[in-house]
């Protein structure tokens, strides 16, 4: 650019020396007009221009040269009836304007010079009308013809207003300005060149129009011209060249109304604190006043750098216009900003950015001012902001850059809408301020109004390295909802920048001084991934309800890890100082994993209810491990210590559920409110196993009321095909306060297996909760216990009801219903088969503590007032048959009696009593309803001698069993006198 300026200056100086008097104004008429209509130029520093060809209200001048030196003046001495003064330069020199260009009255001035036009620092306009300077080759006048600088001729009947600029050059020439050029209020200032460069220049048109166009090649630019203003008709149908504003250049059309700016070029650049300023000026305007728009159109890029900005704002009374940027790519960096806000009484405009490629906002300037886009209702303002709309291939907001539609005054802030065909990325913090990059749509402290929220639609979204999306209310009004739609992944988290403690995420708050509701968070995504403490949070700290958090993922939801302070996850809460209810948390996905201290939580710590948590996962749900602070991964519904309110329910549906290495589902109350219920519905297997090796926290499903609480514990219900409790895994309800413990209901369609697991309810002051288990089979191993306990007070112990086809208890596994001061709970076995290793009923009043570690199975229902009723099936037949298996392979011959089994001749009777159970099927083999003492040989036909001979009970019996005889089909299971069971048939 400096090279171009130097060349222009050298040419101008050369022309001055060539034409004679140095310092004289170089305005030289040509001879292309009829002699009587030629321009008449007085010599000297101040040149007066008379003559010209008058056509209607148009005055035409034609010059071989047109330049004004420093201190000089070119004065068009036109008649008052002239509307348009149209001037052309037909020679080969550029026009250097470094003095005053003046005209009479309100005439508009057109100057075309295909060789280029330079405005020096001292250039001025003293005209009453509008001004257009262009390097176009001709000006078109509708269908009447044109006024050309390269094919000059006398104007014919060019009596209408100019209608177009004609371009007929392969290589155009520049318009450059270092000047402060100003037109009268409400008028237009138009510069069209190839390219157009402003270098420390100021263009002023209060309430009027400033239009810049960089064009090249051939074509035309349509114009709309009235008596006072010019306007280029967009879009331009010609190839474009660059337009740049540098070194603090400024275009200002701000006034009491009107005022618009249009820039069209291939690449449009604002650098070095350059400014476009429109809107309503301070102390100007009135109710109903409307400012114009700012439009930037680029076939290539639009770049704002180094603190440059575009502002279309209301400082007085009236509404500001919009800011629209259309380009292939848009970049704002180093503190550059686009602002359409209201500071006075009126509405701010909308910022519209559209790009076929990328839109990027990056960094801060040297003073810490962030790059970004703003549409705000500022402090002391009364009005609404219009919002921000961005549509692009991709969008990035990084290193402290912001998109903001906050309201700080009285009015509603507009929404922020981002639509990207590819990805949207927010990352990092400001280098100086350490303020997070992100999107903010909030009602600030002291404000009265609502924010309209944040809407993002993209192929993917990343919120990384402490960046944030925040739609909150800290004043008097509601915050809008954050809505995200993507078919790809939403990723939250990343590295924590130095000096920053907040890992970032998506936030919807009611602030401490806020009076209103937060709009919540809604995600419809392919997958959601959060790491290193990043979270989705809907919380109320003030007077209002927190919004809902709704996640709908077609694939996975993964919450993983912690920052030094925060857990990754999804959180809805009522803070300690708040009065309001928490929002619901709803997650729908194909799979869910909550790992390494991450959590899904709904809690109330103030005055209000926590909301429900609903999880619907078609495949697997996994909760594994604890965080660096020992916090277990899981789902939590809580009432805090000083809270007044109820915690919500946890409802989880999944294909499979795994709680491992400390993973938990927990509903608890520490204050004045009830803990929520937990309902787990799993199509296949629930697996609860393991203890975190560092914290020794066990995996489990847990409902509790803490010490000094005044609420009831929540119930736990599990519906599943298989349930496995292993390695310390547990299902438990507990009451340490004045409320009752919750109950446990397990419905297992197939097997419930426990190996060093536990199912328990306990209460320190109130009634114990019940345990009801219905399964196909129940197997307890490795000191697995089913217990209900009440440790003080007259409350009764909870009842235990077990229903299954078979119940097996081994390895010191106990079933206990205990109440220290009250009545023990009832224990009911609804099963035809109960197999227990070394089982012996404990005596009433037995201390349950003495029953653990005794290497046998105990069933006890002790209580100080009375013991509970224990209802067992008749297991006499099978009880003593539980023996250790030999190390050798089983000899099946020892289990078969190939001889017949005779009835005992001894006197007496034997009565079998049943305890219900399933009826025998027609094809079942029945157990003989009488005892046998010995095995007799099977008598063959014709062998009457053998009938009545008995085998010895000892060796002869064993011999008979092992003897290979004729195969005889068994018809039942028979107990021998030594307690052993064999398969055989009765003697005839």
Could you characterize what this model shows?
With 988 residues, this protein is mainly beta. Among the domains are: 743-879, no CATH class; 890-988, no CATH class. It is built from 3 helices and 88 strands. A hairpin with a 4-residue loop joins strand 23 (217-225) and strand 24 (230-232). The protein starts with a helix and ends with a strand.
Average residue pLDDT = 85
How large a portion of the residues is in β-strands, by DSSP E? 35-45%
Distance between the ends: 122 Å
| Largest β-sheet summary | 50 strands, mixed
Radius of gyration: 45 Å
Based on CA inertia axes, which overall geometry fits? elongated
Helix content: under 10%
Total beta strand runs: 88
Query: By helix and strand content, what is the structural category?
Result: mainly beta
Unreliable stretches: 1-22, 904-935, 938-965
Helical segment tally? 3
């Amino acid at each position: 650019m400096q090279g171009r300026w130097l060349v222009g200056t050298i040419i101008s100086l050369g022309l001055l020396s060539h034409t004679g008097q140095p310092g004289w104004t170089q305005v030289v008429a040509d001879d292309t007009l009829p002699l009587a209509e030629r321009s008449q130029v007085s010599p000297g520093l101040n040149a007066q221009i008379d003559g010209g060809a008058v056509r209607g209200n148009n005055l035409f001048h034609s010059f071989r040269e047109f330049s004004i030196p420093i201190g000089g003046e070119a004065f068009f001495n036109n008649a008052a009836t002239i509307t348009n003064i149209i001037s052309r330069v037909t020679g080969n020199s550029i026009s250097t304007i470094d003095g005053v260009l003046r005209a009479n009255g309100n005439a508009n001035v057109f100057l075309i010079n295909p060789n280029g036009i330079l405005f020096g620092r001292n250039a001025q306009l003293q005209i009453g009308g509008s001004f257009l300077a262009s390097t176009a080759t001709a000006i078109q006048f509708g269908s009447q013809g044109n006024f050309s600088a390269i094919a000059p001729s006398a104007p014919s009947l060019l009596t209408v207003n100019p209608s177009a600029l004609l371009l007929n050059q392969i290589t155009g020439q520049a318009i450059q300005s270092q000047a402060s050029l100003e037109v009268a209020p409400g008028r237009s200032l138009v510069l069209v060149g190839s390219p157009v460069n402003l270098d420390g220049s100021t263009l002023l048109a209060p309430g009027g129009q400033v239009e810049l166009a960089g064009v090249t090649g051939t074509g035309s630019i349509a114009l709309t011209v009235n008596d006072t203003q010019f306007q280029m008709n967009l879009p331009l149908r010609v190839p474009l060249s660059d337009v740049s504003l540098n070194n603090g250049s400024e275009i200002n059309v701000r006034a009491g109304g009107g005022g618009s700016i249009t820039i069209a070029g291939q690449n449009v650049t604002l650098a070095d604190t350059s400014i476009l300023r429109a809107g309503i000026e301070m102390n100007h305007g009135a109710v109903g006043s409307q400012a114009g728009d700012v439009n930037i159109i680029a076939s290539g890029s639009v770049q704002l750098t180094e603190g440059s900005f575009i502002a279309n704002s209301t400082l007085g009374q009236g509404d500001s216009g919009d800011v629209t940027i259309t380009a292939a790519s848009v970049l704002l960096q180093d503190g550059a900003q686009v602002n359409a806000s209201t500071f006075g009484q009126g509405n701010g405009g909308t910022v519209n950015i559209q790009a076929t490629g990328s839109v990027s906002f990056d960094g801060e300037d040297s003073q810490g001012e962030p790059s970004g886009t703003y549409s705000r209702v500022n402090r002391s303002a009364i009005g609404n902001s219009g919002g921000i709309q961005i549509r692009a291939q991709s969008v990035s907001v990084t290193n402290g850059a912001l998109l903001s539609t906050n309201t700080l005054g009285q009015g509603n802030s507009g929404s922020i809408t981002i639509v990207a065909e590819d990805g949207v990325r927010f990352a990092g913090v400001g280098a100086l301020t350490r303020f997070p990059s992100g999107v903010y749509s909030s009602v600030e402290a002291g404000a009265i109004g609502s924010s309209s929220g944040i809407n993002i639609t993209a192929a993917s979204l990343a919120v990384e390295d402490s960046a944030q999306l925040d739609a909150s209310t800290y004043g008097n009004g509601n915050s809008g909802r954050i809505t995200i739609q993507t078919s790809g992944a939403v990723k939250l988290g990343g590295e924590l920048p130095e000096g920053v403690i907040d890992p970032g995420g998506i936030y919807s708050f009611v602030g401490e001084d806020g009076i209103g509701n937060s709009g919540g968070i809604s995600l419809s995504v392919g997958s959601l991934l959060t790491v290193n403490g990043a979270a989705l949070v809907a919380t109320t700290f003030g007077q209002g309800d927190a919004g809902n958090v709704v996640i709908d993922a077609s694939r996975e939801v993964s919450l993983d890890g912690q920052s030094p302070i925060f857990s990754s996850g999804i959180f809805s809460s009522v803070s300690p100082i708040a009065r309001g209810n928490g929002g619901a948390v709803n997650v729908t996905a194909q799979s869910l994993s909550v790992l390494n201290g991450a959590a899904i939580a709904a809690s109330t710590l103030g005055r209000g209810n926590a909301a429900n948590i609903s999880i619907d996962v078609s495949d697997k749900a996994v909760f594994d491990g604890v965080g660096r602070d020992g916090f277990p991964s899981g789902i939590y519904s809580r009432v805090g210590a000083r809270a007044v309110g109820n915690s919500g329910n946890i409802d989880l549906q999944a294909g499979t559920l795994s709680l491992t290495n400390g993973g938990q589902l927990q509903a608890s109350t520490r204050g004045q409110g009830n803990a929520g219920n937990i309902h787990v519905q799993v199509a296949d297997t629930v697996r609860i196993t393991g203890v975190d090796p560092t914290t020794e926290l066990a995996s489990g499903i847990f409902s509790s009321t803490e010490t000094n609480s005044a609420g009831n514990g929540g119930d736990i219900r599990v519906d599943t095909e298989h349930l496995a409790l292993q390695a310390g895994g547990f299902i438990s309800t507990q009451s340490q306060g004045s409320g009752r413990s919750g109950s446990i209901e397990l419905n297992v369609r197939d097997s419930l297996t426990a190996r060093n697991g536990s199912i328990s309810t306990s209460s320190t002051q109130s009634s114990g909760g019940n345990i009801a288990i219905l399964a196909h089979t129940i197997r307890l191993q490795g000191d697995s216990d089913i217990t209900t306990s009440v440790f003080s007070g007259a409350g009764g112990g909870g009842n235990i009801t077990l229903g299954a086809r078979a119940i097996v208890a081994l390895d010191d596994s106990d079933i206990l219903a205990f109440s220290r001061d009250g009545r023990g709970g009832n224990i009911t076995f609804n099963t035809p088969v109960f197999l227990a290793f070394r089982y012996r009923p404990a005596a009433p009043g037995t201390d349950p503590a003495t029953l653990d570690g005794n290497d046998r199975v105990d069933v006890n229902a002790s209580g100080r007032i009375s013991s509970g009723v224990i209802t067992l099936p008749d297991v006499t037949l099978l009880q003593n048959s539980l023996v250790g298996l030999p190390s050798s392979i089983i000899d099946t011959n020892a289990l078969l009696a190939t001889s017949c089994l005779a009835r005992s001749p001894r006197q007496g009777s034997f009565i079998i009593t049943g305890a219900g159970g399933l009826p025998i099927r027609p094809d079942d083999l029945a157990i003989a309803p009488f005892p046998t003492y010995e095995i007799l040989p099977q008598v063959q036909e014709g062998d009457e001698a053998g009938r009545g001979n008995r085998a010895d009970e000892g060796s002869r019996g064993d011999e008979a069993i092992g003897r290979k005889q004729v195969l005889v089909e068994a018809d039942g299971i028979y107990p021998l006198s030594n307690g052993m069971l064999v398969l055989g048939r009765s003697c005839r």
